[in-house]
Amino acid sequence: MTNEDRGLNLDLDRRRRLGMVEAVWGADKTVDQIVAAARRLCAAGETLLVTRVDEAKARAVLQQLPALRYHPQAQCITMGKGMTGGPWQCLALLTGGSSDLPVAAEASVALACHGVEAELIADVGVAGLHRLMARLDHLARFPVLIVCAGMEGSLPTVVAGLLPQPVIAVPVSVGYGVGAGGHAACMGMLASCAPGLCVVNIDNGYGAAMAALRILRTLPIENTEGQASQAPG
Amino acid sequence: MTNEDRGLNLDLDRRRRLGMVEAVWGADKTVDQIVAAARRLCAAGETLLVTRVDEAKARAVLQQLPALRYHPQAQCITMGKGMTGGPWQCLALLTGGSSDLPVAAEASVALACHGVEAELIADVGVAGLHRLMARLDHLARFPVLIVCAGMEGSLPTVVAGLLPQPVIAVPVSVGYGVGAGGHAACMGMLASCAPGLCVVNIDNGYGAAMAALRILRTLPIENTEGQASQAPG
Amino acid sequence: MTNEDRGLNLDLDRRRRLGMVEAVWGADKTVDQIVAAARRLCAAGETLLVTRVDEAKARAVLQQLPALRYHPQAQCITMGKGMTGGPWQCLALLTGGSSDLPVAAEASVALACHGVEAELIADVGVAGLHRLMARLDHLARFPVLIVCAGMEGSLPTVVAGLLPQPVIAVPVSVGYGVGAGGHAACMGMLASCAPGLCVVNIDNGYGAAMAALRILRTLPIENTEGQASQAPG
Amino acid sequence: MTNEDRGLNLDLDRRRRLGMVEAVWGADKTVDQIVAAARRLCAAGETLLVTRVDEAKARAVLQQLPALRYHPQAQCITMGKGMTGGPWQCLALLTGGSSDLPVAAEASVALACHGVEAELIADVGVAGLHRLMARLDHLARFPVLIVCAGMEGSLPTVVAGLLPQPVIAVPVSVGYGVGAGGHAACMGMLASCAPGLCVVNIDNGYGAAMAALRILRTLPIENTEGQASQAPG
Amino acid sequence: MTNEDRGLNLDLDRRRRLGMVEAVWGADKTVDQIVAAARRLCAAGETLLVTRVDEAKARAVLQQLPALRYHPQAQCITMGKGMTGGPWQCLALLTGGSSDLPVAAEASVALACHGVEAELIADVGVAGLHRLMARLDHLARFPVLIVCAGMEGSLPTVVAGLLPQPVIAVPVSVGYGVGAGGHAACMGMLASCAPGLCVVNIDNGYGAAMAALRILRTLPIENTEGQASQAPG
Amino acid sequence: MTNEDRGLNLDLDRRRRLGMVEAVWGADKTVDQIVAAARRLCAAGETLLVTRVDEAKARAVLQQLPALRYHPQAQCITMGKGMTGGPWQCLALLTGGSSDLPVAAEASVALACHGVEAELIADVGVAGLHRLMARLDHLARFPVLIVCAGMEGSLPTVVAGLLPQPVIAVPVSVGYGVGAGGHAACMGMLASCAPGLCVVNIDNGYGAAMAALRILRTLPIENTEGQASQAPG
Amino acid sequence: MTNEDRGLNLDLDRRRRLGMVEAVWGADKTVDQIVAAARRLCAAGETLLVTRVDEAKARAVLQQLPALRYHPQAQCITMGKGMTGGPWQCLALLTGGSSDLPVAAEASVALACHGVEAELIADVGVAGLHRLMARLDHLARFPVLIVCAGMEGSLPTVVAGLLPQPVIAVPVSVGYGVGAGGHAACMGMLASCAPGLCVVNIDNGYGAAMAALRILRTLPIENTEGQASQAPG
Amino acid sequence: MTNEDRGLNLDLDRRRRLGMVEAVWGADKTVDQIVAAARRLCAAGETLLVTRVDEAKARAVLQQLPALRYHPQAQCITMGKGMTGGPWQCLALLTGGSSDLPVAAEASVALACHGVEAELIADVGVAGLHRLMARLDHLARFPVLIVCAGMEGSLPTVVAGLLPQPVIAVPVSVGYGVGAGGHAACMGMLASCAPGLCVVNIDNGYGAAMAALRILRTLPIENTEGQASQAPG
Question: What are the PurE domain coordinates in residue numbering (chains A, B, C, D, E, F, G, H) (predicted)?
């Protein structure tokens, strides 16, 4: 066994422990590392999610393993059928602008790997507040809301002030100047005056999906999409 | 109506909209502002939670309104019986060290205002990992985990890597040097390699409680404390 | 002439050049420096505004110069009748919470020194959005809006997305953790997705007032408050 | 309707609400997204402004929609004749150095879309103060001044100390070391000792233009370029 | 010899090596440490400068050593007659506002310890530029200029753009919000567009004095105060 | 068992696992928490080290437990005889200035609790480099060097460039302006060009001591100071 | 001798002084500078380590000096046989994920140049804690542990809480958002609650290796991996 | 006259006012802007210095104006013979490592434009302190020292502690991790414990040269290179 092999020590126990498929952070991995991970997980009968894979790297990976599937907007590679045992409810995935779509897509792919559907409600940022207000009744039907926003990142605060469900805020690295890198959005979401807003790392669509999954797993299975199992008292 | 009166425009609709009692951020309010808020909410038949009230200010408030109750460790004032409609489940409230207790206490008081009980599991930080490992089976029974930690803030990451429930991480402003103000803990929790960790602002025990409440509200009411309604598949 | 005297070199030309009364930043001045400034300006027939004077320092100043007036909430000292030549219009002064009142009060006193009235509309933060929505028609009548907010500072963004007037955003140092010192609010206001939002320094009520004054000065005098317009006395 | 379509939810109401044409942040949009936005706005009889479009992306967009116009220095795409209802006055657009010209050009294009002309007065930075002093009388005739500066960003402070009009400061990301990214300029403009200076985000020429537009809209229409309607008292 | 004694290891060689008297940073020293340092230097026939000593600590030190002298505005203690070998020229010490005087005073006392006189020209900040312009001819006569400024710190940039001498910029911790602690001033001075501006640490009046001393030492001794020995070509 | 009791969950296993006495971070603990910790450890036959205890709190603790010992310069409380099994070698503890002594004292007390002696070599900062150069031969005899420095923190870099032993750098929060809080020193030590310099948190004298202890434990115990020896089991 | 030559002033004395081979920071050097350094060291009979050399630059260097060896994962060039006098013990080199391998490889190559072998134990991050726990007995046998981790960087804290040896923590620039550049990991390692953790700069595999070498040099040389041994002269 | 022309408003008065040639910051200028500036200055009989011009841009400029000269290491373009009126003394230009050479070269070219020669003493960083100590006597002969250093930037502190002349510190953006961008070096130089160290912006070789020129201009002309005109008393 070479040092190169030792570099990959996949957490094959994750599905049993956390109920999640093994996910690989692709940004700092070589094509060879990703291919090796896919082969090992495949051999173990596992599914796979690789995030942050740009198009060139994905092409090189799929050349060796054509059975994998690449999702270009989400920059993700998936393998296998994902987890079953669901379906749980559908959740809502909001974005402030269309520039936030890649992050929302990463969340959507990650949820799909676990048998959860996400309804995308994009471009409802607070600069044109009527777009959100017109959808409040529709939004009230989802058990969990993931809200992605860049720039100053006000959208999750406004949503969490209007609706009682769990709201997972995802700061997005869309912005410039003091808003560059999503840091203003991230700070604003953490400092939010809305009670009970939860935040994940900038651009962390995958993390928001897994946080939502942890919540959905606590809910009873139901038949109808978008009906909250338990309304606030 | 004077300018002074206009300064207080309480959100009496919050209970209906979000299922939460009105909460007042006490740190930047005068004794008169807090007393006025309490009187108005009392007149409206509402309950009240005031956070971040130091002992001197609390004494001055209670001198005028002896029916209020002060919680010294949590630095909170409460009024009335809190919300009914529960009880929902008990959740677990972990801290890395005993210095994190004030933040945990704020969360605990805020949950109690909404009829939710929190079991405190303190001083289980990763510097002595056996303290956490010995409690894993016990922790597995709670539907939601709130984890408070200062310094480098590793505890929520370790917990979220071992257990499948929703984990709400609270960075605590215990530390010095590069860890001063809880910023290292906050950054570490956001940057966590554990999938699906949610973060609230530094020292935001109240926010963590409300985030947990949003989750618990989606669950079916049950009888036994500490039994998850729905295990991961 | 001693060095101590040289330390004070007041800009007696400011009224002619900018149409503003001399304003003194009181936070880093001694009682003696403030008294000397007041005496010199009084001798020159000028009015005076001293900002950031805490109660103890103000008492010591007024003991020597009882004709001055102290505004405790605004932490300002004023002298004389302010500028005439007006009246211009009234503007609206919004705050997200009652903790923002001291900053709004500083703006209000500074405007009053220049013959401008400010209508305070406090505690309309986005966590309870209905409070703002109910006042939109009223707000539409003012030529300029000053909006003060702490925490994540979303309010100016939401206001500027709904209304077409000049909006001057004032971040307020109300907050904790990542929101401490008003920095998250300041970054969020600068990074705002609302078009044409202007920002002044954190807690800079005086600056917001002078920015509003610069705008109001360009307007024709009018008769009715809040219409393309003529200001009150 | 696909998810891809949902990604674009243009604010067609903006012109009615704020008197501004829909503006699209082009930096994080694909060619397809920009083309789709242009088509939809065109169909709605709207005009369009797309900012932050580099030359390659602009070429790809114009290949599909040759009626659009690209402004290379401003990195903007415009469509249609812009808003009418004017002309309001001309305003002055100052820059500290010739490196600030792209930001000034973005402001200029955005103003032109709304029927406002901007007179460019470039390269008058404080390192050669005589260049500014020689133009003071000329500058005094404009109702609003937009001042762009990088490095330490002193120019808006000096201008606002000399002239009574509204001054909108635009920090520019020209600089290196501690001045990299325009952060030193931005902090300096916010911390300015000049009373009533307003600041927008770094490089935000579009925002400065919209802030100026909000002010100009409050002014009566007049015939002569550059004559302030109302002098300070 | 105890550990306590070892804690003080004064640089008695500094005068020979650098031509400067031993200076002690008083802020983090106890009364006993300062007294011990003074005694040892006195025994060695040296002079002494202690900076950053607040009034209470100074009183306690002088009670034990009444021959020392306290300078309250400069917060310095001095001992002995200072260095001889001069006098070199007088230099000019400018401040933007009267709040900068304590920093200027520290520089002034430090220079006096080395036989150099400083002419204070206070309160000539750029918000009222005429105050500086009226003194340009006078300033042109000094061989070195020390310029102290807080807030946005533009003054040294403007001075260095107008005058050819060495300019030492001292950022001052006067300010609030983004200008708090003097950081905006410091960044602005470093990022300055004026060629050849030198910067010392925030509030470092002592350091500016020593930098000036290093320059003055390279000049030929002369008789008349304020006449540059060598004009630019 | 009350919540208050649960707050303290001491790591009684630390001595067996790491060979270190239980250390309590005293800064955020109440007098009651410290007393309870001391009682429990005493009952378990353990020793105790409490760091960051100011004089007032220490007095209150010792009033209840007079057998404890307070070290005022180090701000530490100790109990019992410390660990035996030593003595190992003496190590050298350098400081740049006498202001760094409290941090060095914390390291010294922590080492003494584990039977290790530290020789203090204070005030050898690089501003007077001859003080260090004169001690190089002496320093060469110690197996480990702990080097404390504030301001720009150059001393550990210079030491590690001259001597081959393990060097543990401790940034000290002595400084002001950009050096405030020890951050400049900390960054400088991490960015050091000297090969193999190790850094602990700002002011972390205890951490440096424990890092040194981990190294010394690997060495053979010896009899004479500064010569190789032999470690315990 | 030209200026170009003067640019290179190698520290040929380093081996004698510190027992380390000359190491050249390759990132900011040209091909010519690296070649010149290699030639001069070769002439002096020295060995050489060049770090941070990307593949293209390395190819250009090796074209001129084919006797050099390039290590692609470590991005290092080595020359000669390295130092002899060993072998000392093998140490353990842990990584949190496979993305940390390049940093670990730099450490490994640097140690190999000094005759020290490093056993790589990769991908044992805390998100799957069982991977570490299963190796504790094996890890206990190494005299020094180097632990590389990105993201939140918890691994060194957990390791140092479980094992008594010297632990050198290396933050790795693997991460995004608030974890970008390794800053969250670096802050977390410095702020660690584990006693005696030492930290080097982000990605500083070379520095960690040299810190380990300083420690290993104090040990007696031995034959069997992981047992106390004896150091060289 | 078009807007494009207005973009260039050269400070033709600079030579008269400050005794410096016009310098153009080339990094954010187009080839056309640089060519236009050169033509205008040439027509005015002026010389020119353009800094921060990469090789490709320089080639394009020189194709149009072959009389200009490009300095590749310094990344500067010069035109004409530079200023006469000298020669003043030679000064010393030190660098910590060979990676700092481009910054030193920028300073060297800028000085040469003003008739001042700089003697380069490169690669004398504190990691190998003997290289500096061996040159102290030689360094003592220069009237001004410019010291460039990256990483932790200790070199200027050590130099200013050993030698009495004016020392201008230039932080260099050589480093990584916490030292990336030269920020650690910059903070360390400002926070320096050495008395009277002056600092310019990161990588600001030009600024250091102009600061030195301001000092040299105050000195009497002399004949021999490297002899200080006036020793400290």
Answer: 89-221
